[in-house]
Amino acid sequence: PFFVRYAIGDVNYWDRNPADDLSAPIPITIYDPVDVQEMLSETNLNLYPNPVSNQLTIEFKRYQQQVIEMEIFDLTGRMIKQDRILQRSTTINLEDLETGMYFVKLQYGKTAEIHKIFIN
To answer: pLDDT, tens digit, for every residue of 37-49?
Structure first.
């Protein structure tokens, strides 16, 4: 067993060894979690409209002449559609997909973003 005091900032951690002695304190730093809104505001792209009827537009705010790999997955994790995006803005035809929720994975450079879309 060990004891940890949960708090934001610098805290100490002690480990209890088999002889029932406490170890010397081990300093650790606990950081404030990132707010979801903060993460969303840093995204590099827009997907619209959502919900989607037939066409999904993917638009990059800071496009840097790079290949973007796009994959669309259903709720079971099965890849439904795959494509490469070679421009700042593109429209994907999704009229062949059934009504429901899907995940769009976009990978560019060392970054990957996953967005939830709804088909109606």
So the answer is: 444 445 678 899 9
- Sheet holding 55-60: strands in order across? 45-48, 55-60, 89-93
Residues 74 and 20 in one domain: no
CB 72 within 8 A of CB 50: no
Question: What long-range pairs does 65-69 form, CB within 8 A, spacing at least 24?
Answer: 66/108, 66/109, 67/108, 68/106, 68/107, 68/108, 69/105, 69/106, 69/107, 69/108
Both 81 and 105 in a single domain?
yes
Q: What pLDDT was estimated at residue 23?
A: 63
**Is 11 in the same domain as 60?**
no
